[in-house]
TrEMBL record:
One of its GO terms (molecular function) is hydroxymethylpyrimidine kinase activity. The gene is thiD. Pathway: Cofactor biosynthesis; thiamine diphosphate biosynthesis; 4-amino-2-methyl-5-diphosphomethylpyrimidine from 5-amino-1-(5-phospho-D-ribosyl)imidazole: step 3/3. It comes from Umezawaea endophytica. This is Bifunctional hydroxymethylpyrimidine kinase/phosphomethylpyrimidine kinase. Its EC number is 2.7.1.49, 2.7.4.7. GO terms for biological process: thiamine biosynthetic process.
Length: 271
């Protein structure tokens, strides 16, 4: 039987820890078929990103239309989008194939702006395109606290500010906001906060004492997307994703001389 399909619109991480490699590993472990629209090829290892080339915007758009019109899609997610030109092309292609709020297909926007080493993965000019073109189309946005600061100017250091940030992000137009708490270093629970414009859902978890968390954001957004593709509602899918990423962090491993990846494959090892 054909499994549900999830499209990831993301960059390649040559080190295999984050980006579309992390997405595909997660989607595989979650039992869905992953398709890709590659946006950029990064030169990356466990020590950081030393460069990238962008895929031409029209080729990114063509990949989206080609896979969705033939293979179909139950949910789509974004990762690294690199430039305003690529974001514009993604927005147009998503409208064309009914991905996002105006269509029927759930759309998870992970507004990746930098790698965990601080290397820029999105131009400054592209932030405005994320705000105006992507957020209003998103079913769910999943920024980390650095991305929250870039997008809203709010510096989240505690839980009350995390709520303020969720409200400011909601005002940019997504249906749901998930403010991730991995970078709230004072919080021993890594609290992720889900907001629908009215109610907050707090998702606490353990904070593991490891530096090997490369790809955690991609793993979270992909595991959530795998459940949205099965028709689950957003809170149910987000609860699944939080549990999934926590277990993936617990299974992370050292790689190279720097930061190692989380491992979504814990799920297969348990099967
Ligand atoms: N050390 C950790 N232990 C457990 N969960 C973590 C840890 N670091 C991050 N997480 C979880 O991984 C997910 C991604 O976290 P975060 O670091 O905030 O985003 P990003 O990976 O995009 O920078 C969130 O659900 C967060 O709570
Ligand atoms: C191609 C690509 N996409 C996304 C990330 C972010 O992942 P992380 O925050 O773990 O560095 C990355 N480093 N590379």
């Amino acid at each position: 039987m054909t499994p549900p399909r999830v499209l990831t619109i993301a960059g390649s991480d040559s080190g295999g820890g984050a980006g579309l490699q992390a997405d595909l590993r997660t989607l595989f472990a979650c039992g869905v078929h992953g398709t890709t629209a590659v946006t950029a090829i990064t030169v990356q290892n466990s020590l950081g990103v030393t460069g990238f080339v962008e895929i031409p915007p029209e080729v990114v758009a063509a990949q989206i239309v080609a896979v969705v019109t033939d293979i179909g899609v139950g949910a789509a997610k974004t990762g690294m989008l690199a430039s305003a030109g690529i974001i514009e092309a993604v927005a147009d292609a998503c409208d064309q194939v009914h991905i996002g709020r105006s269509g029927a297909i759930p759309f998870v926007v992970d507004p990746v702006a930098a790698s965990m080493h601080g290397d820029q993965l999105l131009t400054d000019q592209a932030l405005e395109a994320v705000r105006t073109l992507l957020f209003p189309r998103a079913t769910l946005v999943t920024p980390n606290l650095d991305e929250v600061r870039l997008l809203t100017g709010i510096d989240v250091l505690d839980r009350p500010r995390q709520r303020d940030a969720a409200k400011a992000l909601f005002d940019l137009g997504p249906r749901w906001v998930l403010v991730k708490g991995g970078h709230m270093w004072s919080d021993p629970e890594c609290l992720d906060l889900l907001f629908d414009g009215e109610d907050f859902l707090e998702l606490p978890g353990p904070r593991y004492d490891t530096k090997h968390t490369h790809g955690s954001g991609d793993t979270l957004a992909s595991s959530i997307s795998s459940r949205l593709a099965r028709g689950e509602d957003v809170p149910t899918a987000v609860r699944f994703g939080k549990d999934f990423v926590v277990r993936s962090v617990a299974a992370s491993y050292p790689l190279g001389a720097g930061v190692g990846p989380v491992s979504p494959l814990w799920r297969l090892e348990q099967a």
